Amino acid sequence: MIRPVEERYRTVRDVFPELRVELVNGRIVVNEPGTWQHNTIIAQLIAQLAPVVAGRGWEIWPNITVHLGDEADRYVPDLTIVPQEPVMETDEAVHGASTLLLVDVVSAGNAYDDHVIKPMGYAPAGVPLYLVVDPFQRLLKLHSDPAPSGYGRETVEPAGAPLTLPHPWDCAIDTTCLLNL
Fold first, then answer.
1. For the Putative restriction endonuclease domain, which residue ranges apply (predicted)?
2. pTM summary value
């Protein structure tokens, strides 16, 4: 049986297919397209990650829902990196445990969701790495080692310091160019 909020979420998603519609902590959140700064950060991240992703046969998906469980929220990160043939719940939703890295760039209205709510939803779903890029605090926060109770590790790097992504990535993100807008 579909929950009433899930039904409303699907309706809003169908009415506004061009926008990112999420179900966050029981709230329907409609995200407008990002600012030029937001999009520049995403483009710079893609440029840094693309060689590793292409070399390993992975894919970067900029607009896909992450399935966290049948009764869970529905998040749409700014970037989702998946392996070849990820496990899909539907054509529009990839299983969280079947991702390699999720990335959100904090916007003025979603800081609490990106820093607090989403890690609590991603970890129990088995999302291995969740990266939050916060241009307001000028830092990157990488959540790793997921468990049902939350992420076991949180690595925070300020702008200018490299952020190392663990296995299977084994590479570093240059944070200097990301947050110097």
1. 16-166
2. 0.88
- Whole-number Å distance between alpha carbons of 89 and 101: 18
- Decide if 148 is inside a domain: yes
125: alpha, beta or left? (left if phi > 0; alpha if psi -120 to 50): alpha
Give the integer Cα–Cα distance in Å for 174 and 31. 27
CB under 8 Å to 51, separation ≥6 — which residues?
none
* Residue 69 belongs to domain spanning: 34-178
pLDDT in tens, 85-130: 999 998 989 999 999 999 999 988 889 989 999 999 999 999 999 9
Contact between 77 and 104 under an 8 Å Cβ cutoff? The reply is yes
- Please enumerate in sequence order all residues whose Cβ is within 8 A of that of 18, keeping only pairs 6 or more positions apart, or say none: none
CATH of the domain at 132: 3.90.1570.10
